[in-house]
Structure formats: C-alpha cells, structure tokens
Specification:
40% of the residues lie in helices and 13% in strands. Helix 1 crosses helix 2 (44-52), helix 7 crosses helix 8 and helix 7 (152-163) crosses helix 10 (209-220). The longest helix is centred in the C-terminal third of the chain and has 15 residues, at 222-236. The chain is of the alpha/beta class and 332 residues long. It has a seven-stranded mixed sheet with strand order 3-2-1-4-5-7-6, with helices on both faces.
Amino acid sequence: MTTSHEWDPSADPEHIPVLLGEVVAALSPKDGGTYVDGTFGAGGYTVALLEAAHCTVWAIDRDPAAQGRSEALSRKYPQRLHFVPGRFGDMADLLAERGVTQVDGVALDIGVSSMQIEDRARGFSFLRDGPLDMRMEQNGRSAADIVNSWSEKELADTIFNYGEERHARRVARAIVAARVERPFSRTLHLADVIRAEVRRSNDGIDPATRTFQALRIVVNDELGELERGLRAAERMLRPGGVLAVVSFHSLEDRIVKTFLKSRSDVASRPSRHTPASLGAVPVTATFTAISRRPVTPSDRELTGNPRARSARLRVAERTSAPPLASVAGGRA
C-alpha cells in the first residue's frame, strides 16, 4: 500500500472520480488557464486537468486528510497546483486572499468520497463498524451528537427530508427508544436499529442507506454548501468559463438544476403575461446551459464502478453578465 507521499491516482481505480473524462471534456482546459477543483478528494480531477494542459489548478478541500494527499502532487506539478484548505462554498474569498479573482473553470464532485466511506474511523459507512462521526472537517457536531440529543420529530423530519426515507417516523421512534438503553456511539449499532425497522427494498439498497445519508448531509451542511458553492462559482468564472457539477442523489441534482435554470436564458425572458405596470426587471442570464439534460455514466464506466450508477453531470457556460447578487442590488 502506498503512502500519501507516493500516491498515484492511476494506481487506484476506486479513487478515479466518476465521469472524469466527461468533466475534463466539458472544462476543456487550455494552456495558461486557471481552474478550480472544489472537491479535491484524492486529486483525480486535478491530475486530469493538469495533464490535459499546461494550466494552473486551485484545489480546495475541507477534509484535513486531503492536504496530505496533495503534497506529492504539488511536487509533481510545481507552481501549477495550489492546495487550499477550506470549503468550496468559500472559494471566491479563499482565492481572492491569494490574488485570484477570476478562473476559467470550476469542477465540483458533491458528496462523500470513496476514501472517506472506506475509512471506518470516519464513521460514514453502515457496512463497517466505527465511531458514529461523519464530520468531513473532523470538528464540530457529529452524527452521534444528533441521534443522541435531537427529538423524535427533529430526527423524523431530517431523515425524511434529507434521506427521502418513507419510514422516517418509524426509524426516528426506534432511535429514540434505543438510545435510552444505550446511547449511540458506533455505526453498526445505528445501522442494526434501522435494519430492524425497515426491510431491504427490492432494488437491494441497504435499509440504513437513507438515514445515514440524511445524517451526513446535516452534519456537514452539504446542501447549504452546494448552494454557496454555485453562487461562488458564478462570481469566480470569467465570461466563457465553465461550471461542471457531478451530483449523486436527487436533492443535490435538484439544487444544481434549479440554480442553472434560474440563471440561464430560460429565466432571463420575462413572462409575456407579466403586466408592465408591475415594474418587473428582467434578469440577464449569467449562465448558458450546455445541455438541458444531465450527462450520465456510460455502460463501460458502470461496469467498472457500480457506485457511479446515480451520478449526474450538469454543465453550464458563464456569460458576460454580472453575478445575480449584484444585479439591481438583489440577493443571490
């Protein structure tokens, strides 16, 4: 097994990002260009961009473990790869502090990485026993804090809204009852309680999947971070720059789709039914969608990586219009 200083993304196919070729093709990196990999992870997108052109990549990740993985790559691509610890939702401020105000492309791969899932000490997996943690930044409120302290209604609403679990109330009731006897501290304890209440679905998805997803999203404020990241990309991208976002479930994809629609030329045309007397001010489109439908993994990719089955890539090109937040003083 290689150490982080010997790490080579091509040596571990499990850590090759989903839709890698499609993302790089969409960004179409050029010599002298500047790109943001907002979710560095194992560096798959970063490496592909740096290999595709003599460009510069600013790689961002909130997980402290990612910085160690970036060190070998920084030595391999001196002056071209710059790792920035932090959240991609703050990319505009993080890069402005380093003298970068405009970029040619932004890539975002939303959600948890395979490395985080496989590391049982991180507590993301319901298949491996570990501390019930799930914190990407390894600080703040953990999943255990939530399941041990939130009310039954708060848990049910969270599991239903963020996990899209039909049996959310039943699961929440079981969690509250179980924690009286034994507070939750381990992943398999929680997974076993859930499995006792929810049957495995016909598609074979583990009954714990949706509840673990909901807790992870809340612990890390993933949907809020995605919304902030989209607005930050709008500020950072120069005219003609490209935004490429890979998401893995409907909640994420819906946010990306809605954002791009609200910023696209579809939204820029005021309704012909809107009375002029209302004083409606048409908003100039800040993005042009490359395709109305998301790009999905090929059969070949799915054969090699079944985890890619739910992935969706949406791509849009930045126009020359100012960010929506600065149009008529509005709020993004």
